[in-house]
User: Fold this.
Amino acid sequence: MNEAILTTEEIVVVGAGMVAHRFVESLISRAEKPMHVTVIGDEGLHPYDRVGLTGFLRGGTPQGLELDRSVFDDFRVRFLADDRVLRIDTAGRTVTTRSRRVIRYDTLVLATGSYAATPEDIDGTDLVGCFVYRTLDDLERLDRYAAARGRVAGRPLRGAIIGGGLLGLDAADALVAMGIQPSVFPHSEHHTSRQLSPSDEREVTALMEARGIEVRSGVRPTRIITESSAGVSALELDDGSIEPVDVVLFAVGVRPRDELARNASIEVAPAGGIVIDERCRTSEPHILAIGEVAWFEGRCVGLLAPGLVMAEVATTRVLGGDAILRSNGDPSMLGLRSVRIADVGESGRADREAQEWNMSSSRAGGSGITAGRTPRVRALQAI
Ligand SMILES: Cc1cc2nc3c(=O)[nH]c(=O)nc-3n(C[C@H](O)[C@H](O)[C@H](O)COP(=O)(O)OP(=O)(O)OC[C@H]3O[C@@H](n4cnc5c(N)ncnc54)[C@H](O)[C@@H]3O)c2cc1C
Assistant:
C-alpha cells in the first residue's frame, strides 16, 4: 500500500450507512483540529439501524430506526442525502455526484456497503412480488405490496424465503409478524453453518417451526411463476412440485458495492470488495475503505462489528495517528430479532471462521474503543 500523509481539511464520506455514521461520530468527538466532513448518501434518509430493520415490519417507524441525529447536525458536518457519487477523479481528488456536484477531498472514505444479492439459478426473480431484504425502502415496498395483495386475496398470504441463514430466518419471522405464512427454502441443508453448529441450528429451526415457519431443507426452487399482473403465484421446486406463494423474499447473501473503486482503478478483489490493508488504506493514497465493502485478509465481512472497528481505525488514521485492524480468532456475536445466538465460537465451523476484530494500538485521537461488542453469553434463547 502507498504511504501518504493524510491531511484532514476536507474529508468526504461516500455512503451514509451505520459504518459511515460511526466514522463521523468518532471523528467529530475525537478531533482536536479544524475539519470539514461531507457525507453523501443515496438512500434519501438519515442513517438508520439496518440490523434492527425487521422492527419496521413489527409496527416500527423509520424515525424509530434513526441513528443519533446530532452527529450530522454538528457544524463541521454536511450531509447530502438522496445523492449518489458516480465518479472518483483520483488525480484531481474530487468526486462527482448524480446531481452534478463536484466535491474536492483531501481524504475520501468509501463506506458504500453491499447490494442484496438475488439467486442466479432461479428464473423469475424480477417478477412483481419478489423482494430483497436490505433497505428500509425494500421493506416499505414489501409492506405496501403485502397490504394490497392481502386485500385482493381476502385470505392470509403465503410467503417464501429463498436462502436461509440467520438473515433468512429473521426475514421469515418478520413475515409472521405481518400475518404472512412463510416457508424457508435454505440453499443447503446446514444453512446456518457459518453462524451455528448443527445442534444450535436444530434448536433454532425448532423455535422457528413453533412460530409457524416451515423450513424446507430437502427441496430447491427452480422457477418463480406468475399467472397474472397481480404478482407471483407459485414456486416450481426441483422435485417437480408446485408451491403456491404470494410473496417471495431473497436472503441469499450480499455483493459489495465496489463499482466506484473499480471504475477509478482502485484495487478490487477478484470476487469483489475494495482491497484494504490493516490501516483501512486502499491502493490509492488518499482513499480509505471501511465496512462491508472493504476486503481484508481474504474476504468482505457481512457483519456490523468489523465495520465499526474499521471506522475507528480510519478515524485514527485521519487524525494522524496509527491503529491497525487485527483479527484474533475470537467469535463475533450475531444478533437476530427472534432468537438470540451467542458464543457462536463453540460451533464447529464458526469457531474457525468467526472473528472478533479489534484494534491493536491507537496513538492518536483517544482510546477506549469498543466497536459495539455485545457481551458473550452461552445461550440460545427466545426473546
Ligand atoms: C435485516 C438485516 C439484519 C442484519 N442483522 C445483523 C446482525 O444481527 N448482526 C450483524 O453484525 N450484522 C447484521 N446485518 C448486517 C449489517 O447491517 C451490515 O453489516 C452493516 O449495516 C454494514 O454497514 P455499512 O455501513 O458497511 O454498509 P450499508 O449499511 O450497506 O451502508 C452503505 C450505504 O452507502 C450507500 N451508498 C452506496 N453507494 C453509494 C454511492 N455511490 N453514493 C452514495 N451512497 C452510496 C448505500 O445506499 C447505503 O446506504 C444485518 C443486515 C440486514 C439487512
